[in-house]
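Quick illustration, no need to memorize.
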Amino acid sequence: MKMISVYTCLMAQMYLRGMDSRELALRAGLPYASLRRKMRGDSSFKLEEAACIRKILKCDLPLEELFQRKDCPYDA
């Protein structure tokens, strides 16, 4: 079993608001492919992007908590 690192809190906040990655990318002004790379951990979120996403999600969590990565098992 492989381990992957994911933004569990960010994904939960998106789920609670009924928002998928495509909609978030569109609202944040990011290309969908770029957002997916960032969500996979292939590249990092810029501070401005993180703040924009938190605002879009209307989330009061600190950026450090919202964008904390957690290792999860992944069965490919």
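The beta strands are 2-6, 70-74.
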